[in-house]
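[audit] Reproducing an earlier prediction to check determinism. Same input, same settings, fresh worker. If the tokens differ from the archived copy the diff job will pick it up downstream; this log only records the rerun itself.
[audit] input (458 residues):
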Amino acid sequence: MKLSKQLLLLSIIAIGLNSSCKKDTVEPDSPLSSPYAKTYSGEFLQDYFSLQCDIVRTTPGFLPSMAARAYGYLGVTAYESVIHGIPNGQSLEGQIQGFEPGSLPVPDMNKKYNWAIACNAASAQMMRYMFGVNLSSDNLALINELEAANKAELSVSVSAETIDISENFGLELADAIYDISVTDGGDESYLDPFSQANPIVIPPDDYCWVPTGPQPGPLTPYWGSNRSFIANVAENTQVGDHIPFSTDPNSEFYAAALEVYNQVTILNSPEEVTITEYWADDPFNTCTPTGHTFNIIKQMCAEANATLEKTAVAFGMMGVAENDAFISCWKSKYDYVLIRPVSYIQQHIDPNFSTVIGTPPFPAYTSGHSAEIGAGTKVMIKLFAEANGDYTFTDLSQIQYGFAARSFDNLYEMANECALSRYYGGIHYTFDNVKGLELGFAVGDAVVNEINWPSNLQ
């Protein structure tokens, strides 16, 4: 459904019933005598991430690393806005970096809150903050319209006092989290994505990355030094060196490049080309890789009729995972500054070689797609699947870009296809993808296991 139609429908619903959004009864053991977060639908929060996708796609400067950060802070903000309405829920204060004890506002224990209204205000405000001065007037209007339509629907039969204190809590929370975000190393990176003001010097050695397009330099070369949500996650999830670089035709590295060359020029089937294009997730044409992964978990939430409780936890977990996967992956990229297959092949195998899709403007090792889908997969498995990854799922997220839906019976299978897509496209060596998945899985495990997330979600 188009956003304009959604807003029209929400306006109509706001006049009438709101039974899909709030139950009439208050559970007697609810904190602060406020209805639990699980008594609200998560649909309105899912709509924010649909809008985030569109804004990422249409906002200058929001390339994959910046997009992951924006999704990350929106997810964490949504989580914190409802955590006091989740039984035994624990704030991220003291659990993730930057969120020191006392850094976030807390509800007044003597007042009644509507967690959906709080979440609505906090999510809208954080979206406005994340896109900063590059947020267009049209996109700002879309955020404001969605916020107003949600508020109208969520406020039916709610007292003016509860509306005010809930909305104010959400706004104060977003302000506090934004203040934390500006010190993480990625603030306003969208204004200089290639760090022209502080360019990195890539060594001239044969193994090193060289530009593959017209960009002024490699993308976000210092991203691996950003403050992650989980302490030391970048250092603790590194996967070690790639196979030794060599230009010797008898070497293992030459064989890895030749494998890419043969796959692209001889072996690629129409299905493998489709897989390449399906997972390409090009910035400014799509939501970026992180947006694709968020669209998948958003669809899982929608299909499960997830409450606000489960939706907010899912987006909070995924936000931490995606943000930290990009930081860890970017550390490896600029620790090794490895040459891309297209450059190596053109220099040492076939000067006329071209890839199926464009090569991104940053080093090869490890694969960003593999890292982010690996981290995201661990979150999906924790919330929706069997421990072995079994989960029957049809990804509908790319229909909007003209692709047919793709179906999977196992989430690890889906992650592997995403990683392989970069090999089929000539973008990565096989070892980039294998090690990228390993790195991403390690980040995802840290997110799932090192933070005290609410359990028994409804």
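[audit] rerun output stored. Observation attached for the diff report: The beta strands are 390-395, 406-410.
[audit] end
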